[in-house]
Specification:
Blueprint (H helix, E strand, L loop, with lengths): L3 E2 L2 H21 L6 E7 L3 H17 L2 E7 L5 H13 L5 E4 L9 H7 L11 H8 L8 H12 L8 E5 L6 H10 L3 E5 L6 H5 L4 E4 L16 E5 L3 E3 L2 H8 L3 H10 L2 E3 L4 H7 E4 L7 H17 L4
Parallel strand pairs: 1-11, 2-3, 2-4, 5-6, 5-7, 7-8, 8-11
Antiparallel strand pairs: 9-10
Helix pairs in contact: 1-12, 2-12, 3-4, 6-7, 6-12, 9-10
Bound molecules: NADPH dihydro-nicotinamide-adenine-dinucleotide phosphate (NDP).
Length: 306
């Protein structure tokens, strides 16, 4: 069987083009642009890259954005004050607090302080509850993007067996809820799951959100399954890259020339050999996260008066 690629980059581009058109119509009618504030605490290099990409995405769509930065020594009280200020700021429709926050900051208190109507990451307990109750609200961007990817590739979910490996509040749990909403029969697995391989082998739709490079191998994948790989891990050893990517010389060259390449939580050769559809890493799930953040920001703007 030749598997087909769930092309996240093309899907994200299509979503962004639709959003740009809608934002253009809003501007043409004299409406205020959607506004997103990104709160970045500390010097985590990956967080800086993510916030940079989000601010750039806003600029590309004609959205207003603000970047609020604080040093790694910031206190919970300081971050709460920033969030409250943004809650009251009429130019801001969406607030994202880049995670992880430094250990001394109470992340739950901060996320719970975001006005639920500006909670474009969907992490506020009210929005988590709305998701579970099938009520309108904001849905976390990565799982929302995966659903959009599956929908736009006509992947049937009703009555299918779906297995989600990972139970984080950001990916695994909301992913499971969204698949359930589309009438899949969903199993959530985690580090204490017994006989994980056998559970995964029952999946028509297998979602891996673990954070361990190439953890899911051939033995986890039912032939013909749809495999969604959420993981983003870096590989810098050329021999390891050779093992993971088989004969894909391009990837090995990347490690030799650039020092590393990306691999997901699924062994690439296993995905290529056993799935019917799969998300590549990079270019699968990753691009959709930012596209859905932009979609949530426009939604927040349209739901707000003025
Ligand atoms: P977390 O570390 O919060 O959660 C990982 C989950 O995997 C936990 O539920 C954990 O179980 C489970 N797990 C860990 N080891 C095993 C194991 N041996 N067997 C079964 N389950 C295991 O990670 P996130 O959910 O935040 O992220 C997961 C991956 O997705 C990461 O690689 C991250 O970089 C990536 N990611 C990608 C995004 C994108 O835009 N593409 C966005 C967000 C994340 P337990 O709960 O029992 O500890």
């Amino acid at each position: 069987m030749t598997p087909r690629i769930l092309d996240g980059k093309a899907t994200a581009d299509a979503i962004l083009a639709e959003l740009k058109e809608r934002a253009g119509r809003l501007a043409a009618s004299g409406g205020r642009p959607p506004g997103l504030a990104a709160v970045l605490v500390g010097d985590n290099p990956a967080s800086k890259v993510y916030v940079g990409s989000k601010v750039r995405a806003c600029a590309n769509l004609g959205f207003y954005s603000e970047r609020v930065e604080r040093p790694a020594s910031a206190t919970t009280r300081e971050i709460l004050e920033i969030v409250r200020g943004l809650n009251d700021n009429p130019a801001i429709d969406g607030i994202l607090v880049q995670l992880p926050l430094p250990a001394q900051v109470d992340s739950m208190a901060v996320l719970s302080a975001v006005d639920p109507s500006k909670d474009v990451d969907g992490f506020h307990p009210i929005n988590v509850g709305n998701l579970v109750l099938d009520r309108p609200g904001f849905v976390p961007c990565t799982p929302a993007g995966i659903m959009e990817l599956l929908r736009r590739h006509d992947i049937a979910l009703r009555g299918k067996r779906a297995v989600v490996v990972g139970r984080s509040a950001i990916v695994g749990k909301p992913m499971a809820m969204l698949l359930l909403r589309e009438h899949a029969t969903v199993t959530i697995c985690h580090s204490r799951t017994k006989d994980l391989e056998a559970v995964c082998r029952e999946a028509d739709i297998l979602v891996a959100a673990i954070g361990k490079p190439a953890f899911v191998t051939e033995d986890f994948i039912k032939p013909g399954a749809v495999v969604v790989d959420v993981g983003i891990n870096r590989v810098s050893d050329p021999d390891e890259a050779r093992r993971l990517f088989g004969g894909d010389e391009r990837r090995i060259a990347q490690v030799l020339e650039k020092g590393s390449t990306l691999v997901g939580d699924v062994l690439p050769t296993a995905m290529w050999e056993k799935s019917s559809w799969y998300t590549p890493v990079p270019g699968g799930v990753g691009p959709l996260t930012i596209a859905m953040l932009m979609a949530n920001t426009l939604k927040a703007r349209m739901e707000r008066q003025g």
